[in-house]
Amino acid sequence: MAQATPPQATERDRDPAIAGPCPRLTTLAGHRRIAHDMPIVHPSKIDAWLAVVLATAMLGALVAAIMALAVPSPVAWAISAFTAIVGIGLPLWLLLSTRYTLARGELLVQSGPFRWRITVADITGIVPTSNPLSSPALSLDRLRIEYGPGRSLMISPRDKERFMRDVEAARRGAARSSPAR
Q: What is the pTM (predicted TM-score) of this model?
């Protein structure tokens, strides 16, 4: 008969800074969950016009890659592969991976190969905006996250109200679990 192994100590057990009362978040369905243990993922809202632009760019890259294959040479094959990877792969990666995750006192912003980590306690403001500057947002219906000294990042969560509630709950939880200064 096999012996049961004792459970591993969690970060919460080892770190006195987070050993206090565990902050909880309430989901839209009313379920309660522990903020430190379960990441909350907010997918990006995608504007239809941007999806059409990206789909058109991917189609153009596909056509260019196929046309490059018409020339029977190793260079044409390399150009075709590069065109397909960059022209189809990157837009598809951005469309499929842009999301905003709240976990362990951080906001992780992911968009294709790009990543940002923002400590939730450093967030000083969240302001609605439609600024078209480049950002990890697939919609112009955006939020500007202000954090740190003069820093900001624009994002476009699908459900902006829920995102702001979740950030505020995470900020309250971070304030409760951080040691007194």
A: 0.72
